[in-house]
Amino acid sequence: MATHGKNYRKAAERIDRTALYAPATAIRLAKETASTGFDQTVEVAFRLGVDPRKADQMVRGTVSLPNGTGKTARVLVFAVGERAQQALDAGADEVGGDELIEKVAAGYTDFDSAIATPDLMGKVGRLGRVLGPRGLMPNPRTGTVTMDVAKAVGEIKGGRIDFRVDKNGNLHAIIGKASFTVEKLAENYAALFEELQRLKPASSKGRYLIKGTVSTTMGPGVPLDVARTRNLTSEDAA
């Protein structure tokens, strides 16, 4: 059984586990319980009332965080010819066709997002065993299978994140760094939350957002009031 250090336990004592905090308040508490050793990532986790085994209840999407993620994403692009040059000009970290596909097939995954032109998806699709479990497979629904590779690279470098529910109905996403202000993190949270609400499957019955937490990399989870759908950037009462 995992044990936590003294700093973690001390931080956890400041959180009322029976409470449901307004998003901005939860974010402030998460920031306050972050250690100062390094600039920790701030992440939110939701439990969704969906059955991901059913295709029409798979929640997956992208959102551009208004204040970015605090991290410059490494972007790989499967493209050749003119599109490859456009991707490089837009700031892609690695670009290529068959050779790059073979490199990834051998296990290379040192990147945060992958984009592909439609003409290469027949070959890229064979990388499912490497890319699939990591959520890196290009997909038209997330705008990562496209001829406009320059736009896709720019959006990802600018703070767009991809998210998807896992087989147990859990969804994780980063909303920035602990060094961000509460206001900037709350604005990023609001953008993600509103997109999740928009993506609610029509076939999902009962509660859609069951529960949620916000935490830093090494910090305890702070319970979120996921029923709060307005004034998401304010600590005032809903």
Automatic annotation (TrEMBL):
Gene Ontology cellular-component terms listed: large ribosomal subunit
A Gene Ontology molecular function term of the record: rRNA binding
InterPro entries with a match to the protein in the record: Ribosom_uL1_bac-type, Ribosomal_uL1, Ribosomal_uL1-like, Ribosomal_uL1/biogenesis, Ribosomal_uL1_3-a/b-sand, Ribosomal_uL1_CS
GO BP annotation list: regulation of translation; translation
Keyword Oxidoreductase: no
Keywords per UniProt: Repressor, Ribonucleoprotein, Ribosomal protein, RNA-binding, rRNA-binding, Translation regulation, tRNA-binding
UniProt-listed HAMAP family: Ribosomal_uL1_B (MF_01318_B)
Function: Protein L1 is also a translational repressor protein, it controls the translation of the L11 operon by binding to its mRNA.
Record protein name field: Large ribosomal subunit protein uL1
Organism: Serinibacter salmoneus
